[in-house]
Design goal:
Layout lengths: L3 H14 L13 H18 L4 H10 L2 H4 L4 H8 L1 H9 L8 H13 L3 H14 L9 H18 L4 H13 L1 H4 L2
Helix pairs in contact: 1-3, 2-3, 2-8, 3-6, 3-8, 5-6, 7-9, 8-9, 8-10, 9-10
């Protein structure tokens, strides 16, 4: 079972960190994406019952904090501990690298983390494989789908429930490319 007080604390922290952000191409608050990723990750953990549900929940809610806000690894470590901060850091793209190297680098760092972090990354991509912003080109959509396959191929083997969900979303995403 997960800790509802820890969920509230983590969600409040994430909501404050992302308070000025909106989902790309919409007026919806960015925190809705974080909650959707959390729901996917928690649901996957509940299906297997073997992972640390609180770690998955916290890293899902915080997964974009370092990448998209002014908060740092140290801020997360102070508030939630090293294990959560390490997971969030692994989920954070290293912008010092050239763009084509960022995802492979992140995936390699995720592989060094507990399985929950792999689940969060797959949950994030499931949510991001919804209808893309209207301004994305066909090439960008195709590359995004290929990157999703790389994520599944690299991180798979830990939670069959989320892997099946991601595989179905990747296939379903073709409708946006061919539209």
């Amino acid at each position: 079972m997960w800790n509802p007080d820890l969920y509230q604390k983590t969600l409040s922290f994430a909501n404050h960190a992302h308070r000025e952000q909106k989902l790309p191409g919409s007026n919806l608050p960015y925190v809705s994406h974080l909650c959707n990723v959390c729901m996917e990750a928690v649901h996957a953990v509940l299906q297997s019952g073997i992972e640390d549900i609180d770690l998955a929940m916290q890293c899902a809610l915080l997964h974009d904090t370092i990448e998209d806000t002014e908060l740092t690894y140290q801020d997360i470590e102070t508030e939630f501990g090293t294990r959560v901060a390490d997971g969030v850091l692994a989920l954070t793209k290293n912008v010092a690298l050239d763009k084509p190297k960022q995802m492979p680098d992140s995936l390699q760092r995720i592989l060094q983390q507990p399985n929950e972090i792999r689940i969060v990354k797959m949950a994030d991509r499931i949510n991001n494989l919804s209808e893309p912003p209207h301004y994305w080109t066909k090439e960008k959509k195709m590359n995004y789908q290929l990157e999703a396959r790389l994520i599944l191929d690299t991180l798979g083997g830990v939670n069959s429930f989320i892997e099946t969900r991601l595989a179905k979303r990747i296939e379903h995403y073709s409708q946006y490319i061919n539209a």
